[in-house]
Design brief:
5-stranded antiparallel sheet, 2 domains, OB fold (Dihydrolipoamide Acetyltransferase, E2P), two-stranded antiparallel sheet
Length: 328
């Protein structure tokens, strides 16, 4: 983006200077709020492939009128002046215009706008397929294949979250594959954990997110996602596939339990506490990859020369960005 500043480039600018800039970003989130003086303003979160930033647009701004009618998920071109608040970029925006994906594609900048994992979608899908092939129990394997075949398109593209971890296109696929790779590495150590059940549980643990969320760029929670949540939704998907695959009652119940308990704690959304070796294993692997996914994304998007990240709610701290000094 030679003429436009990416969000990562904005974040790397001198906080003490106010510079004019032009950028092309997605509106990831838009909320209408009321200031202390009673006037409305817009809280906007913008995103591109390199990160996000949040800023406020007040109703006395020319940009306010335009942005009122632009929906979340829209791609826009903005002009503004850099400002920082608490060391975070929060620019003043004075000009807004809709921009199209076709324009971005024609200019060869589309890859700089949509965040995706470092690994390609095709590689990740191959790894998921490889994981399914490792399941030896015929009915368990058929259950997983039934789910994946019926949800392939959505599974390939879905985000794993709205904001917390793997919150971008193909993020759910990336998260699932990384859990698979961790599981395949660790399962030989924990022989008490049934291999087939653990792998099936890993692949299906978040399948309910395909119904919990919607939106290709600006991910939102659906009506059924709010009312039931991905844990219950995933349980229902797995149960239907298990019945069609003639999976035994015992294995069906154990697979369902992995899905119902994988969130780890009831206050985090688990319907039950993990009470089988496989459920404990999947829950711990899920927590590990969710947190390391936050670390990986933060390091990828870190401004140059920054020492610490912003506060990360999922880690409850700021992350040290500099690598270990091993010269001595």
């Amino acid at each position: 983006m030679t003429d436009y500043l990416s969000i990562k480039q904005l974040q790397a600018l001198d906080p003490s200077s106010e510079l004019a800039f032009t950028g092309i970003y997605f509106i990831k989130r838009k909320l209408t709020k009321t200031a202390k003086n009673g006037n409305p303003y817009l809280l906007l979160e913008f995103s591109d492939a390199s990160g996000t930033f949040v800023t406020n647009i007040f109703n006395n701004s020319n940009a306010y009128v335009t942005l009122e009618d632009i929906s979340e998920g829209s791609l826009i071109k903005i002009q503004g002046t850099t400002r920082f608040y608490n060391q975070q970029i929060s620019p003043d925006i004075y000009s807004v215009a809709l921009y199209s994906l076709e324009e971005a594609t024609d200019q060869g900048i589309i890859h700089q706008l949509i965040e995706v994992p470092p690994e390609s979608e095709s590689y990740l899908w191959d790894q998921l397929t490889f994981g399914i092939e490792q399941i030896k129990h015929p009915a368990l394997k058929a259950t997983v294949e039934n789910v994946i075949q019926n949800h392939e398109s959505a599974f390939r593209n879905a985000s794993a979250a709205i904001a917390m971890h793997h919150a971008y296109r193909h993020g759910l696929l990336e998260h699932t594959v990384h859990m698979l790779q961790i599981g395949l590495a660790l399962l030989p150590i924990y022989k008490e954990v049934d291999f087939d059940l653990a792998i099936a549980g890993i692949i299906l643990h978040d399948i309910g997110k395909l119904e919990e969320y919607e939106g290709d760029i600006a991910t939102k929670t659906t009506r059924v996602g709010i009312l039931q949540g991905h844990v219950v939704l995933g349980y229902k998907v797995a149960r239907k596939a298990a019945i069609l695959s003639n999976l035994s009652e015992d294995l069906t119940e154990r697979l369902e339990h992995i899905i119902l308990s994988h969130q780890g704690e009831k206050e985090w959304g688990a319907a039950a506490m993990a009470a089988t070796p496989e459920a404990v294993f999947v829950s711990m692997v899920d927590n590990l990859d969710a947190k390391m996914g936050m670390v990986q994304r933060t390091l990828r998007n870190a401004p140059e020369n920054a020492e610490f990240s912003d506060y990360l709610p999922g880690l409850k701290t700021r992350l040290l960005l500099t690598p270990p000094n091993k010269e001595k």
